[in-house]
């Protein structure tokens, strides 16, 4: 007994000396970092232990990595408040790669058979095509490939792989939806603050850096909240408007109906102040898609009774034109009268002539901001794509665009087939809502690169796997209500 006590005392003394020495070492390092790098050094001192904690947590449980990836995608917009050259986007890449590594470390818990899935084959085929684009002789600067390939194919492939093999539960799906709605609610509040109270200094600086030409029109601010720009904010708000409207239609409990209706109205007004006309097509495509997918005649009639009069008012009257936001939404339905839309068509005609002899495009990384940065004199960098599909067309050619569109249509087709097999009413209503939302965003991307922008792309990558593999959570019909 005495010997054990003596050994324990010696161990405690040794550990105390060890931790004392470690503490002194950390204090010296912290002093050196702060002395040489100032505030950034202090942030590094605090951040390293936190980063180490998350690295270990992700390696132990890949679901933590996936959840952190979602949160970081939303928080990425706040980097405009940090005046630093640190590439914060690489942190997202690090998290998703670490999560993929964790999936491999925990391979025994994963269901690898799910990778034999039509949607995964589509993702892999598109990934292989984008990798082969490295051989495209038209690309003037090969390293630029890495900047656009992440948004083109890599991120979707990584997320798709993780989502397919992870043992996800219904409760975790609910957590995902709650996370999405909470962040969207905060984004709407931040947007209202920008519109009705004012911008922060960092946001005014962001506008002054060249973004005012697209976000200050006729003296009106296009609200962008903490998203990359007003276009993505508008798309996201239209997306959650749809989801909450669907939940309002399907809920039976009065309190829940009131909550979802209130959220739908709040998100719709947030969409309106974004001034993003193309985001209106998320609603135009998503709402009827949901009604058709529901295969509920009564719901179809109710939806049509609401939607048709609203569209008629926007199309054939000038009611509400005195309100700038309503007027701007109305112009989305009259593209022939929109100078910016006509300019886009002119640009596409120029690109058509240029790409006529380039079936594989000008190479990934040659257009948009990356093209302007690395190959500014290249023709592909001279004309703004103004569309996700046009950007893919420029960089991967008509062959690449065809493959990409086939992939999207394949995902939608598989999704329709899968959701129509669902027996669980809760799961069925949730999955057709997510599928309808995906259809709406896919149509809207004719005008904006939303499918490549965080955090919207992350949510879409995840939900595309959810509704195409929805049989994983199907059960016998149960009379249960969705609570998210």
UniProtKB/TrEMBL annotation:
The chain crosses the membrane at residues 18-34, 40-59, 66-82, 88-107, 119-135, 147-168, 175-192, 230-249, 261-287, 299-320, 398-420, 426-446. It is found in: Membrane. Keywords: Ligase, Membrane, Transmembrane, Transmembrane helix. Its main location: membrane. The keyword Membrane applies. It is a multi-pass membrane protein. This is O-antigen ligase family protein.
């Amino acid at each position: 007994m005495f010997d054990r006590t003596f050994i324990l005392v010696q161990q405690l003394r040794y550990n105390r000396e060890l931790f004392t020495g470690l503490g002194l070492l950390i204090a010296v390092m912290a002093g050196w970092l702060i002395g040489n790098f100032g505030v950034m050094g202090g942030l590094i001192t605090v951040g390293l232990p936190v980063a180490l904690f998350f690295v270990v947590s992700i390696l132990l449980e890949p679901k933590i990595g996936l959840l952190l990836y979602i949160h970081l995608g939303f928080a990425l917009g706040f980097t405009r408040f940090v005046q630093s050259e640190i590439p914060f986007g690489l942190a997202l890449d690090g998290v998703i790669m670490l999560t993929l590594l964790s999936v491999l470390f925990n391979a025994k818990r994963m269901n690898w058979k799910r990778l034999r899935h039509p949607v995964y084959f589509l993702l892999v085929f598109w990934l292989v095509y984008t990798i082969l684009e490295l051989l495209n002789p038209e690309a003037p600067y090969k390293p630029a490939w890495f900047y656009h390939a992440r948004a083109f194919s890599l991120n979707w492939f990584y997320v798709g792989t993780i989502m397919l093999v992870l043992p996800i539960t219904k409760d975790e799906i609910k957590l995902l939806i709650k996370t999405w709605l909470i962040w969207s609610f905060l984004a709407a509040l931040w947007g209202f603050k920008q519109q009705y109270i004012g911008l922060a200094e960092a946001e005014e600086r962001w506008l002054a850096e060249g973004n005012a030409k697209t976000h200050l029109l006729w003296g009106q601010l296009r609200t962008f909240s903490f998203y990359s720009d007003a276009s993505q904010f508008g798309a996201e708000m239209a997306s959650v408007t749809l989801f909450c409207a669907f939940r309002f239609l399907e809920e039976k409990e009065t309190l829940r109906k009131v909550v979802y209706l209130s959220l739908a109205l709040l998100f719709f007004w947030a969409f309106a102040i974004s001034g993003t006309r193309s985001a209106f097509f998320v609603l135009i495509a998503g709402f009827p898609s949901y009604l058709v997918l529901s295969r509920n005649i009564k719901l179809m009639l109710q939806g049509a009774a609401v939607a048709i009069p609203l569209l008629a008012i926007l199309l054939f009257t000038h009611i509400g034109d005195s309100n700038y936001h309503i007027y701007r939404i109305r112009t989305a339905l009259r593209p022939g009268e929109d100078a910016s839309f006509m300019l886009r068509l002119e640009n596409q005609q120029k690109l058509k002539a240029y790409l006529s002899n380039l079936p594989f495009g000008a190479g990934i990384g040659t257009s948009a901001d990356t093209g302007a940065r690395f190959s500014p004199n290249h023709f592909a960098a001279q004309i703004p794509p103004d569309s996700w599909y046009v950007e893919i067309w420029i960089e991967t050619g008509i062959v690449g665009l065809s493959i990409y569109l086939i992939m999207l249509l394949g995902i939608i087709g598989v999704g329709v087939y899968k959701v129509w097999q669902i027996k669980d009413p809760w799961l069925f209503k949730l999955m057709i809502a997510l599928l309808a939302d995906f259809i709406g965003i896919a149509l809207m991307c004719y005008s904006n690169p939303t499918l490549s922008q965080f955090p919207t792309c992350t949510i879409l990558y995840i939900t595309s796997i959810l509704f195409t593999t929805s049989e994983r959570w199907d059960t016998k019909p149960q009379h249960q209500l969705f609570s998210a």
